[in-house]
Each structure stands twice: as C-alpha cells, then as structure tokens.
Amino acid sequence: MRIAMIGTGYVGLVSGACFSDFGHHVTCVDKDAAKIDALHRGVMPIFEPGLDRLVERNVRGGRLSFTTDLGPAVADADAVFIAVGTPSRRGDGHADLSYVFGAAEEIARALAKPAVVVTKSTVPVGTGDEVERIIRETAPEAQAWVVSNPEFLREGAAIEDFKRPDRIVVGTDDERAADIMREVYRPLYLNKAPLVFTSRRTAELIKYAANAFLATKITFINEIADLCEVVGADVQDVSRGIGLDNRIGPKFLHAGPGYGGSCFPKDTLALLKTAEDHQAPLRIVEAVAKVNEARKRAMGRKVIQAMGGEARGKTVALLGLTFKPNTDDMRDAPSISIVQALQDAGARVRGYDPEGTEQARPLLPDVDFCDDPYDAAENADAVVLVTEWDVLRALDLKRLAATMAEPVLVDLRNVYPPEDVMSAGLQWYGVGRTAPNPG
Ligand code: NAD
Predict the structure, then answer these.
(1) Parts of the chain belonging to CATH 3.40.50.720
(2) Is the beta carbon of 211 within 6 A of some atom in ligand 1?
(3) CATH code for 2-198?
(4) Ligand 1 mean position, distance from CA 223 (Å)
(5) Could you identify the atom of ligand 1 that is nearest to the CA of residue 102?
(6) What is the reported pLDDT for 75?
(7) In angstroms, what is the span from residue 347 Cα to ligand 1's centroid?
(8) Can you state the angle between helices 10-21 and 51-60, rounded to 10 degrees?
(9) Whose CA is nearest to atom 25 of ligand 1?
(10) Calpha distance 4→81 (Å, rounded)
C-alpha cells in the first residue's frame, strides 16, 4: 500500500514512520523545507523517544521518504493522510482549518487514481463534508473517499501509542474506503487492536469528546487537590482511593499545575465553539477550560506565597519547562503562565529543561536558561519542579539546599516525599497535600 502523509509534524512524522514500519511505502510531505532538509540528513525536527531509530530503519529499507513536493506523492498514493496543524483561530478559539482546507485543495489537484483522503488532524464535526466538497469542486473527475481517522497518540510515548493503540477510530459510510483503511491498519487489526467504524461526523466528535473528558478528569482532581490543602487531606491518597475503582480508573488523576500542551487547551476551546455554534452548550467543558486557565497562573501565586508573599528582587528556578516529560513541545505549557505570573510580580526567573530549551526560548522572554538543574538553583530563593522529567526525579536535595539562597522547594508534581525534602533542609510545598508535622 502506498501512503502520502501531508504534514510532517508530531503526528505526521510518527504516523508516517510507523506505517512504513508496518511495511507500507510512505512519503511524508511538508511545506517546511528546513524540516524536510533536516530529515534528509537524518536529523529529527522533534524530540520523541525512539523516533530517530525508527525513521532511520525505514528510510534505509526504502519504505520511507520525505519531500516538499506534494504532487507526485499524492498521485501515487492509495491513501492520502492530512496531518497538518489545526491551531486555535486567533480571537474566537475556533479550530483554524485553513491548513486542512489548503491541503485538501492541493491534494485534489494532484489525485491521479482512486484513493482515500483521510483526515488525521483533529477537526470539528462537519470538516470532512467540507473537505469532500473542496475535492469535488477542485477536481470533479477525481475519485476520492474522504474518511475521518482521528489520532490519539501522546507525545513522549507516541510510537508505543501508535503501534499499540487502545482503539483505532475510522469514520466512513463507504465500504470500499473501509476496506482500504482495514488494509492500512492490517498489522494492528491482526494484533487485535479494536477498529471502531462509525459515521464520519461521529469519528470527528469522538476525538474532541475524548480530549474534553481527559481534561475534565485532570481538572477535577486539581480542584479536589485545592480542597485537600484546605481541609488537611492528601490528594495522592484520594487519587488512589478513587482510581482503584474500575469505573473511575487511575489514569489522569495526578494533581498538578493544570493541563497544557498542543491538544487539550485548543481542543476544549474548539469543542466549546462547535457547541455554541449549534446551540448545544457544554457547561462542564466550559468550567473545565476556565478553571484550568486560572489554575496555571495560580501556580505562580503559590510559589510567591512559598517565598513569604514577596517576589520582587527574588530569583526563582523552574525545573522542567515542557508541558510534559519526553517531549520538546512547549505549546500552551503551564510553565509559560507561571513564568509570566512570577515576572509580573517582579521575580527573576531561571529555567532548566532537558530537551525543551530551544523551543522555550522564544516563548519565555527574559528567562535565564541553564544547562543544569543545580546551576539554575544557585542562589535561588525557590526551586519549582514544574515538569517531572526522569532526570528531575532523583535530584540530590542536600546539594540543592546547599546551593540556594533560601531553601524552598515547590513540587508541583508531587514527585518528592515531603519527609525527604524536609530532612534535606528544604521547606516543602506540594500540591493537594500539607506538610507533615516535624517530629
Ligand atoms: P505540527 O504543527 O507539529 O505539524 C503540522 C505540520 O504540517 C507542520 O510541519 C506544517 O509545516 C505542515 N503543513 C501545514 N500545511 C501543509 C501543507 N499544505 N502541506 C504540507 N505540509 C503542511 O502539528 P501536530 O502536533 O503534528 O498536529 C497535527 C494535527 O494532529 C493537529 O490537528 C493536532 O490537533 C492533531 N493531534 C496532535 C497530537 C499531538 O500530540 N501533537 C495528537 C493527536 C492529534
């Protein structure tokens, strides 16, 4: 099977590389010539564990290639995937579909044989209808079936997620298109991954409903964490206590600084916009989006409180800047709001991240970036663990305490047991838990 992947970002590159690993012939297309050049040199444009080896193996096997030239890749393909970005539209929060529609038009002009055109980008309900209309109007002779196949991979575990998905959702009413999609996913289908066939509109909505539900779960436990702090309960134990209930499940119940990343913030907003457009309000999701936004800045205030209520003239070291570990993605990372809140209050901010510094620099002006967590902590008035990278899970707390001006550790991920932090000579502040009484 020959596949063209339009858009070679986090989703397009990982999906394309995995499809080629299944034995398909994949051409990844991107408009960004620098990205394609880098890939030709074997340099990955993103940090994703295992991706370089996967790409290298399939390029060497002759199954995976990269180009800026969409035409030949599409002309040759049995399946054309659209994996371009759908960021929030400036001003109203609606998904910006200009890249999807632009790609659809280019694809229509290049189609030379019957093919499925598959939207993998996260797109609002009804986008497939519009893609179909664009293709029909641009190339009335072309034979194309427009299918929805939303992607559920998580950055940082993207290859594993793609190769061992909980489910694959395919939205189409056409049996021929369904057959091609079964062929595309054959190795996973043989591996018993559930292939869920639905209408196209339903598939489009499943993706948003899944992300909104996960965002709700995170926000729920974050609010419970706030309550825990006030009433003297421990959110870690609450999470465990409710997560062991099979009807609830333990995942996405870790209290922290609020969700961020390239998907949840923009997808919840886009879903709300769709709901508003169709006069079917989603009040729970509305509350989730509001509570989460407020929470990210509130984390800045939490740090200031930990420093005795005054930030002016103080230095704060943030450890971990990306929205989660094992990715260099800084889109909508909570660190951005925390830095802003601290700088607004007059603090000087230093930052350390194992992989995200390059992406963080333009988004975090006036932050001093360090190459090492202990350098960041030197003479700082507080150290804040924002993102729980493995290298930040086993810091030498005594060394940290010795190098700081004031020994304050704010652990926004509840990585360190408070007793360990305190016995290293640091004041401890966590999320949803109160400090144990000394002695
Ligand atoms: P990205 O910004 O990393 O990549 C998109 C790429 O598309 C860019 O490299 C851009 O240059 C390219 N592009 C845009 N228009 C093009 C065109 N006409 N021809 C060729 N290339 C073009 O985006 P991403 O994070 O990979 O997300 C892609 C989509 O997948 C979004 O809708 C997103 O919501 C969804 N999604 C993302 C994730 C994730 O974890 N990142 C997970 C699931 C779904």
Answers:
(1) 2-198, 209-439
(2) no
(3) 3.40.50.720
(4) 32
(5) 18
(6) 98
(7) 35
(8) 50
(9) 10
(10) 6
Rounded CA gap, 352 and 365, in Å?
14
**Ligand 1 atom having least distance to the Cα of 121:** 32
Q: Ligand 1, residues 30, 97, 98, 109: which to mutate, most atoms within 8 A of Cβ?
A: 30
Q: Assess whether the C-beta atom of 161 lies below 6 angstroms from ligand 1.
A: no
Cβ(386)–Cβ(321) below 8 Å: yes
The token pair that represents 309 in the structure block: 């209520």
Is a pLDDT exceeding 90 seen at residue 171? yes
Q: By alpha-carbon position, which residue is closest to atom 28 of ligand 1?
A: 85
CATH class entry, domain 209-439? alpha beta
State whether the beta carbon of 263 lies less than 6 angstroms from ligand 1.
yes
Confirm or reject: Cβ of 121 under 6 Å from ligand 1.
yes
With a CB cutoff of 8 Å and minimum separation 6, the contacts of 61 are 20
Whole-model pTM: value is 0.96
Ligand 1 near 81 CB (within 6 A): no
Which candidate, 222, 376, 385, places its Cα nearest to that of 306? Answer: 385
Q: How far apart are CA 430 and CA 225, in angstroms?
A: 10
* Catalytic residue IDs: 263
More confidently predicted of 92 and 184: 184
Strands 64-67 and 25-29: parallel
Cβ–ligand 1 distance for 148 under 6 Å, the answer no
| Alpha-carbon gap, residue 126 to 104, rounded angstroms | 14
The CB of 73 under 6 Å from ligand 1? The reply is no
Ligand 1 centroid distance, CA of 14 (Å): 11
Q: Which of ligand 1's atoms lies nearest the C-alpha of 12? A: 26
276 C-alpha to ligand 1 centroid (Å): 25
Confidence band of 438 (pLDDT split at 50, 70, 90) = low
Structure confidence at residue 343 (pLDDT): 98
Extract the tokens encoding 396: 């030498």
Average pLDDT of the segment spanning 60-79: 98
Cα 410 to middle of ligand 1, angstroms: 34
